[in-house]
Amino acid sequence: MHDSLPLISTIATALVLALLMGFIAIKLKLPSLVGYIFAGILMGPFTPGFVGNAQIAAELTEIGIMLLMFGVGLHFSLDHL
After folding, report:
1. CB-CB contact of 21 with 35 (8 Å)
2. How many other CB atoms are there within 10 angstroms of residue 18's CB atom?
3. How far apart are CA 5 and CA 2, in angstroms?
4. How do residues 39-63 score in pLDDT, each as one tens digit?
5. Where are the domains positioned within the chain?
6. What is the pTM of this model?
7. Which SS3 state, helix, strand or coil, does residue 6 take?
């Protein structure tokens, strides 16, 4: 039961930080993507403060890439090749 706590806290912190940084970027008349990137930098292992679990973050990154490739595969057609 307690093994899922780091996973949940990493995901929740990343989403909340991305939301806040996205709103700040929009207020500064920048694209929200800039805020998302800045949130990733703030949560990374090379900045002081809260550091997400790097092992769980790496696993989530791999899952995200797999889902992205699956989504691209769904839209791929042999006619376009």
Report:
1. yes
2. 19
3. 5
4. 888 887 777 766 667 777 778 888 8
5. 2-75
6. 0.66
7. helix
